[in-house]
Amino acid sequence: MKGLTEKQIQKVEELLSRMTLEEKIGQMNQAATSLVGGFDVPFEELIEMMTDGRISKEEFEKIMSTAEQDFHEDEIRSGMIGSFMVQDPVKANELQKIAVEESRMGIPLIIGLDVIHGFRSVYPIAIAEAGSFDTDLFERTASMAAKESRAAGVAWHFAPMVDVARDARWGRVSEGPGEDPYLGSEFARAKIRGLQGDRSSTENYVAACLKHYVGYGAAESGRDYNTVSMAMHQFYNNYLKPFAAAVDEGAMTVMAAFNDLNGVPCTVNEFLLRKTLKESLGFPGFVVSDANAIRECVVHGIAEDEMDAGIQAALAGMDMDMGTSIYVKNLKAAVEAGKVPVAVIDEAARRILSVKMWLGLFDNPYVSEEAMKRYETLPDSHRALALEAAEKSVVLLKNEGSVLPLKKEARISLVGNLAQSREEIIGAWAMSWQEKDCVPILQGMEETFPNLKYFPCGGPEGDISMNEVIAAGDWGDVIVAVLGELVSMSGEASSKADITIPGRQRELLEMLMHTGKPVVLVLMNGRPLALEWEYNYVPVIVEAWHLGIEMGHAVARVLSGEKNPEGRLSSSFPALTGQCPVYYNHMNTGRPGSKSKFTSRYLDAPLGSLYPFGYGLSYTTYEYSDLKVAETEDSLEVSVKVSNTGERGGRETVQFYMQDVTATLVRPVKELKAFRKVELEAGETKTAAFTLPKKEMGFYDNDGVYRLEDGLFRIYAGGSSKDCLMEEVRIKF
Ligand code: GLC
């Protein structure tokens, strides 16, 4: 495996030569703390019983109070567990000590955890951070997360999630970098560099885990875990792209997705795991299943029983079983019955041992006392980076009448429960944050605007009441309404059939609009929302997502103008839920949507998205001119002038797109090929440029063959996928 010394490779082989079959299979087993005692059903069943009302919440809590945590020490001691999920460094060291000093082979555990957007210093959810279009930022935040988590004993992140997602009904759009394969690829590469790149010390890097391989974001009807069917040209040109880029960048592990792809669950899909990932892409690390996914292959209907599922998964190239123990219970018998060649077990164990060796776990398996204390108080530099990421991720969607930025002395009525919440700014999958680190919007606003009154009034759940606001009688100069979704309304198992602002928040918004005061809507949400009503009636809309621990300061800095908003949308926003999936890089069809009836459109919805991919406003304005496309032997040299035509400096996200106008397969109306962040003072003009290698102007066909076809191409440049200059060029490859 690249990145290992010859000596390390030999050490892996030497270990393998001494390991028993059971010990090799033990490395293929990933476990987590489980709860035992107090009840005679599996913990998952207990959760189901509470969820479906078979037991009350009180009964559940009573049973739980008798439960004990099982850390599976005996299985670790007997070499039957290769990886463990735990986020406490003291416990991690205890379990590691058993593995290293009490098991026969002394092989360290690889401790893994879902560190998706920060460990202690939680930064924006990926859909938001991707909207900064700042690859250097992507890398720096990942590096910070790696350092913080390694100091807690976590050497493996189940991140980055790089699922291309076009359907905002799917709750997991919050976890990934949006709808575009190129932005997703650049995000993935930067995250791999950030997580794995600084190998100056084993305290600075972790193993990344690309997930969820593959096509999970295309779940039918946006319903989580649902079936996925797609033409293979879509697979190669969209969904596989970020994974291929990240493998090329050196990703060390991959997690297979829950879904089936064209009828074969990814967990047992040999075409995906062996042929595509390990052979075609040359992936050197190991593949882990998603939680319980091997067992679920029986439910999928692709395996007769757990033994059959385990055999199919191992043969397909699944190296590690997350959470079912099916491998340790069945693979030895399967090998002895000749159903699984021992070479399959050797390959999986070799890949796993190689990643542990690459992580330096054999030499440094433990967390030092000093490391454990290192982040008790967050370093200013980490908090500053969380703030930088947060404020770069805010997208200004609408600013009618230039209500924003607000003057510091403005008399502000701040409305909405979400504004005071600490846990609701954190976002999906943050597991190691601490309340004391969090800056809610209310705090940030109070520190910035001295004449502020706060009215909780209501939020995504429960009632709303304007009584307090009405009793106050005085609205001040402007109302800032913080509305949107709870963290629990996006992320895993959080698909929605209606993605308008939930609960009675729209009613609250209407009442606020009736005051006659200007209303600034600040959205806290984990997915694109259907904003037709807000788009038509609310003068100012700020997309603030779930920005992490520094959300309060970031929002206040943007509303006050201390930070000129520079975020752009990494995912299109629909007008109505019924438009989903809606995305910019769509096919033209033979009847592109227009005002004419017999075209690709809805009778009851506007054409296209409300706010398109790449869109975002600023407190200044930018103009594009002079797009030039010069052809060289093996590339196109593209340049465009961008001017700051407003009153203040800002950072513009210059986007370059391409269209292959005629090809042997229909191609998208636009494909993002590059982006540049350009700092411009008021009145300043700069040239943004990029080189487009001709070999990157092709596409994969349904057989996975990459095709470069002569013909007409259009090159676009602009400040969003919708508003661009365009030049045509005819290419002969
Ligand atoms: C979950 C998620 C996956 C996560 C894993 C471990 O079900 O699908 O993203 O990494 O289990 O928590």
Helix-strand layout with pairing:
Blueprint: H1 6-18, H2 21-27, E1 29-32, E2 34-36, H3 43-51, H4 57-66, E3 68-70, H5 73-77, E4 83-85, H6 89-101, E5 110-113, H7 126-129, H8 135-150, E6 156-157, H9 181-196, E7 209-213, H10 232-239, H11 241-249, E8 253-256, E9 260-261, E10 264-265, H12 270-280, E11 286-288, H13 296-300, H14 306-316, E12 321-322, H15 326-336, H16 342-358, H17 369-374, H18 380-392, E13 395-399, E14 412-415, H19 441-448, E15 452-455, H20 467-472, E16 478-484, H21 505-513, E17 519-524, H22 532-537, E18 540-543, H23 551-560, E19 622-631, E20 635-644, E21 650-660, E22 671-680, E23 685-693, E24 699-700, E25 706-707, E26 711-718, E27 724-731
Parallel strand pairs: 1-4, 1-12, 4-5, 5-6, 7-8, 8-11, 14-15, 14-16, 16-17, 17-18
Antiparallel strand pairs: 2-3, 9-10, 13-18, 19-20, 20-23, 21-22, 21-26, 24-25, 26-27
This protein binds alpha-D-glucopyranose.
Can you walk through the features of this model?
By secondary structure, the protein is an alpha/beta fold. Among the domains are: 90 residues, no CATH class; 113 residues, no CATH class; 200 residues, Glycoside hydrolase family 3 C-terminal domain (Rossmann fold), CATH 3.40.50.1700; 110 residues, Sandwich (Immunoglobulin-like). The protein contains 23 helices and 27 strands. The strands form eight sheets. The protein has a six-stranded mixed sheet, sandwiched between helices. Strands 6-5-4-1-12 form a five-stranded parallel sheet. β4, α6 and β5 form a beta-alpha-beta unit. It binds alpha-D-glucopyranose. Alpha-D-glucopyranose binds next to loops.
